Amino acid sequence: MSLNNRRDFIKKAAWSGALAISIPEIVSTAFAAGNKGQRITLNTSDVVLFQGDSITDAGRNKEQTSYNNANILGSGYALVAGSQLLLKYADKNLKVYNKGISGNKVYQLAERWDADCLDIKPQVLSILVGVNDYWHTLTGKYNGTIKTYRDDFKALLDRTLKALPNVKLIIGEPYAVNGVKAVTDAWYPAFDGYRIAAKELATEYKAIFIPYQAVYDEAIKHAPAAYWTGDGVHPSLAGAALMAEAWLKSIN
Amino acid sequence: MSLNNRRDFIKKAAWSGALAISIPEIVSTAFAAGNKGQRITLNTSDVVLFQGDSITDAGRNKEQTSYNNANILGSGYALVAGSQLLLKYADKNLKVYNKGISGNKVYQLAERWDADCLDIKPQVLSILVGVNDYWHTLTGKYNGTIKTYRDDFKALLDRTLKALPNVKLIIGEPYAVNGVKAVTDAWYPAFDGYRIAAKELATEYKAIFIPYQAVYDEAIKHAPAAYWTGDGVHPSLAGAALMAEAWLKSIN
Fold first, then answer.
1. What is the pTM of this model?
2. Of A32, A205, B78, B178, which one's alpha carbon is 20 to 30 angstroms from that of B166?
3. What interface predicted TM-score (ipTM) does this complex get?
4. By the 8 A CB rule, do A127 and A108 touch?
5. Which residues of chain A have a CB within 8 Å of the CB of B93?
């Protein structure tokens, strides 16, 4: 739909409250549609690593190198999902890390991948990256293309599986909420290519795919888009909880 | 049990993993036992306020006066519970505040109650206070007694209900994990009096009671006590998620 139509839609959707399906049900449905029942079973002493850009970083304290605490997990979906992992699987002695860094594109993950992924030896690796690979081309800060994104991401996954052949992969769909601040019709259809590429890579690498776009698209029928994200990209706390709910569906 | 017995117990309980009942089930059972099915139903535009000491504060940014965001909710149980409220009740336009302040005893809540509670006009008010009312007497910083705690708390609740007659109250049980760092046998049985007083006040004021002590007592059968709290009082992220899980049982 066009930006104006979408704005009207978003306005009308505000606090409708009358929808028959709850947010957790939305999330389950969207997850199941993308993953055909595939989930990850955690084992004792598993290391879970969240990797990505600012959406994952979410203001984490980068001077600490520990795990399982709120400062180092930031204040986004990795924190909310991490807190639930540590509660629900308390008997598993998990170590939950967050190594997301604000502004990162795939090539920047690659530059720090030894220290910030391979050395940590995760059993479960979750990667959410792509919005900057597109967004930064709009501001002239970056000239990578959709092919760059796909090729760089593929190389990163190959390198990961060579070092950690048994790692269980989770790939998050890059998402954006059109009509909110930074995100406009000008992003489309180009940005959709990044979403599609991430999904294709998830299939190719047998990763669990988290369909964040579908989840946000449904969530904005329950509350205004600005309730979930202030700028169309970065989640509010409600948005972080929404993403965590979707992410947690990947775990048995 | 004695401290040594408890330490042995805690050691043996570490990562046992073989218990038949899950943490969420424990929490449900403990909550139900204390509340006979009583829960709160949220309405559209309700204001939810978390009040208390450092356990509630959890490093929140006190320079911001807003609501619903991670910085101002801190990194403890109020953040985790708040994130889940904002997700599950996204259609209700809730405002979730945290006004906990580290070190507070009941009289210190009273000193700032107009600005930090009554003016905010919560429909749902959650108070967790009491550990400092006891703990600070051990360090000579405070000479209040159990009677002071009960009388001050009663006066605070009377004042609250006079200003906000329809407020729905939640009272959290002060808790401590014996055998972890700050908490020793020397706390008992004196500290138990504060737990009992909080429960009696919850009954008297028709508040929902969150049985945090029972919840921690069960949780340490699933993972070492230090997994849930570093010093016996302040929760880890896992402990914060545990408390949030218990707190959320108070909401329909």
1. 0.93
2. B78
3. 0.92
4. no
5. 15, 223
